[in-house]
């Protein structure tokens, strides 16, 4: 098995260690794994082709993980969906999980919660193996499934009361407030609710116990823009409190930008990178050429895409800094202009 | 620390309460009736003033316990999804609920039995086994259905039942055996309820010809269903896939009736001749084994009318699955509706109703196999009456069963209990009537057969008219 998982598991997103790592990167002989071509490292968003150091055991103790996945493999028949995936989420983060349809986002979330059997690997929530989570840990977890098809015969109020009974913490005031603001009729049967209303209910139910880790599987897919905005406000309010970790998968990238989420990209069965949005936007940019154009067949590490049409050309670069771009442009006698890309455009290029 | 554990304890008992309330919320009327029945049963000795009436109380209690176990298990199945297992203390709370149910459903009758000098230990063990079996049936364990053959067989052979009772009553090991079997059953149910799996695609819920091993594709279910079951499922899928390809090819060639055939294949993927033959082979094998076992029993065959009514009932009960499934398939029918592009939505309803008629042939073949095999138990002079009368009765039962499906085509939700009761009655009565009359004389058989068929035909006709009165709804059932 890949020896890096343990290390990655410890390091992903650990701010306090990034600095340390970056200072010491050059001192060790192990090469960083660039994520996609030359994007940031999946471990700590450090530049590509840098080196990584091994950390000692004290590191793990100092960076408590809400979720830690090591070497997770999940197959459906002959199809491998998650391929020795490693991922670690420190507490206090909002992470947007991006990935194309069928990339395995829902499967990853379900495996992380122990709701789907896995073939290999180790999953821990708050340091506890997911297969044997004690009640105290379960109290700290909230989950919104992608499709809500449970308990169609229950009335909304019955459903919420049923779940409230299991939790030591249950914010009834917030539940009632959200039911009103989101216009979910508590007297209706779940089977009579629209898909959007069911999704609202699932979100209310998931955040009512004030969880420390909230996993939301495409929670806004069926919500109207108004409710989506309200949901994001609620989410931001939750995540402002210390120690709260939120993972949500979505295709609506503007929501991730609004929530100021870190971005994790799931592709080919692995988390390709996980880093904050400004870092990602710095690394993945569009370079427009003026004066002269590079040859159409020009290839170089760090150039994700080369587009040449109607007498103009641009590159999408990943991890190439300004100096490197300028050096390349100089070879063709061209001038360049760097353009920031929206997260959606980045996702289209890298996803 | 102490406060935290107190809060957790309190939330645990709240959870137990919530789980206890679930069956009341799901089946309020059924639960109220059962409670009344239970109270009535317990009041029997007081009302009658006879201690012997306690036996009646125990019988009522056993009846209520059975239904309560089945209904509660149906609710637990709907709640025990993988998602529920991340509710804090869910498993412990559910186990506690089982324990509490056991306390009053098992210990109370045992105490009553003890008070009037009946074997208390055996009563408690018997109730435990009955409760475990009913929970297993309600939770949808396929093999649990076979357990109900035991009381059916004991009803058929009352002498043997009496002897068995005497043996059990005097045996000190019998209660232990009952409890051990109950423990094995409950463990299997628990494992099924707590299983974490990815599920698997199914052919169609409407398939009354499939052996329903469809949820058995992943590793966890492989263990539960077994390799033979999976092999059968694979074979069924293969055959139905081939039949579906054939129907599509016929549709492309614009052969007459191909659209109806395709719709039929969507609704009942195994209702093609290979699938029907496969099902008949399995039915014959299973019943053949059962009859071989019965051949070793003393006391001769059961009353012929009873056997006929059972066959009619089994034939009609197949339509319960069809009823449930036509409702579940409603949303998926949208695609078929647009693809087939009928003249109107009403025309599509008529096409569905016509397609459902395709369920009559396999049902009749199923009844014919049962009748032919069961007829071997009876003297030659009774066989013709059983087969002839049985076939007519089974046809009437099938017509009535399909009629029920059509009448409920527009239902908001599956009417499981109502459907089971109505189908059981509609299935058993015409078959036993026809066979009973045919035994007296062929003429009487013919007259009763015609009357029964006319009645069933009229019911079916009425149901068909009712079903085709308005366009089919595409809403998912509640």
Notes on the structure:
The complex is a heterodimer of chains A (351) and B (478). Chain A is of the alpha/beta class. Chain A has helices spanning 4-11, 15-24, 57-62, 105-112, 135-138, 156-164, 172-181, 195-207, 225-240, 253-258, 277-283, 322-332, 343-350; strands spanning 30-31, 51-52, 65-76, 79-90, 94-98, 120-125, 128-129, 141-144, 213-217, 245-249, 262-267, 270-275, 284-290, 303-309, 312-318, 335-340. Chain B is mainly alpha-helical. Helices cover 78% and strands 0% of the residues of chain B. In chain B, helix 1 crosses helix 3 (53-79). Chain B starts with a helix and ends in an 11-residue tail after the last helix. At the A-B interface, helix 5 and helix 6 of A face helix 1 and helix 4 of B.
Quick description:
The complex is a heterodimer of chains A (351) and B (478). Chain A is α/β, with parallel strands linked by helices.
Structural shape of chain B: globular
**What is the averaged pLDDT score of chain A?**
78
Between the first and last Cα atoms of chain B, what is the distance in angstroms? 44 Å
Helix content of chain B: over 70%
Q: Assembly state here?
A: heterodimer
Shape of chain A: elongated
Cα Rg of chain B: 25 Å
Report the count of strand segments of chain B: 0
* Largest Cβ-defined interface: A-B, 32 and 36 residues
**Low-pLDDT segments of chain B:** 200-223
